[in-house]
Amino acid sequence: MKFISWNIDSLNAALTGASPRAALSRDVLHTIADENADIIALQETKLPEKGMNKKQAAALDEYFPDYEIAWISSREPARKGYAGTMALYKKGLSVQADYPSIQAPDTMDWEGRLITLELPDFYFNLVYTPNAGDGLRRLAERQIWDKKYADYLSSLDRTKPVISCGDYNVAHKEIDLAHPANNHMSAGFTDEEREGFTHLLESGFTDTFRYIHGDVAGVYSWWAQRVKTSKINNSGWRIDYFLVSDRISEKIRRSEMLDSGPRQDHAPLVLEMDF
To answer: Is 49 exposed, middle or buried (0-12, 13-18, 19+ CB in 10 A)?
Structure first.
């Protein structure tokens, strides 16, 4: 089976926007559609609480006509039009969708950050992990989230194997970003966030990219939009992941980033498993 994960940074902008960036986003959507994945996970959809309007739904259907959709958006008391996730899965798959609460702090459980699909042989979880924020203002809450999320994935794993993906907002090791020395106090590379991700992996999960590629350096999934030359110079971070339960790691056949062209921000990830 094939799976794709992408932080789209506004589904509406990608589908119906008129800016040059929107055109680049649509090029990425074409790339994703050509992969013909079984399940596609989108993060940071930024949709309103009621979801897509008719124009947006029709535009999405042009790319993915053979898919069912599960989605959740940010809702009160969280900010509107913030975060949000969506899963698209091939029609004919036996899927039960869940939108779990993990008893996270602040408004994190209302921000539309988690979807779990239950299939006959495994769970598929997608996540948009909260960012620690400017000045690390949300770092303490982020640490609680990391523990709660690891506990949640472990609870799924006790029932059946798990495939999990998304924007985890953390570069795990120094080889996962271009300039580690300058970023030890930056959101996404603090010791606390890295320790949280280590704890998650030690709970019984495999980083599929590292499983396939070992300690290769210079391969990233995100390049800052604020720095115009970040992608040209490959000054990036690997903060997006596909994880699987350790006991199915031998089924991993492909795990890599898809080419997102000149578009800065996140690149899509693809995972292939031999079931």
So the answer is: middle
- Inter-CA distances, 136 with 17, 190, 215, 217, Å: 32, 9, 28, 26
CA dist 240 and 5 (Å) reads: 8
pLDDT tens for 13-61 read 999 999 999 999 999 999 999 999 999 999 999 999 999 999 999 999 9
Q: How many domains is the chain built from?
A: 1
Q: Which residue numbers are catalytic?
A: 128, 167
Place of tokens 């006790």: 158
Strands (E) across the chain are located at 2-7, 39-43, 67-72, 85-90, 96-98, 114-118, 123-128, 162-167, 205-207, 222-223, 240-245, 252-257, 265-266, 269-273
Q: What are 167-207's pLDDT values in tens digits?
A: 999 999 999 999 999 999 999 999 999 999 999 999 999 99
pTM exceeds 0.90 for this model: yes
Q: Which amino acid is residue 217, in one-letter code?
A: A
Task: Copy the structure tokens of residue 66.
Answer: 């053979």
Domain residue limits at 255: 2-273
Residue 184 CB-density burial (10 A; 0-12 exposed, 13-18 middle, 19+ buried): exposed
Q: Burial letters for 75-88: b for 16+ Cβ neighbours within 10 Å, e otherwise?
A: beebeeebbbbbbb
CB-CB contact of 244 with 11 (8 Å) = no
Q: CATH code at 206?
A: 3.60.10.10
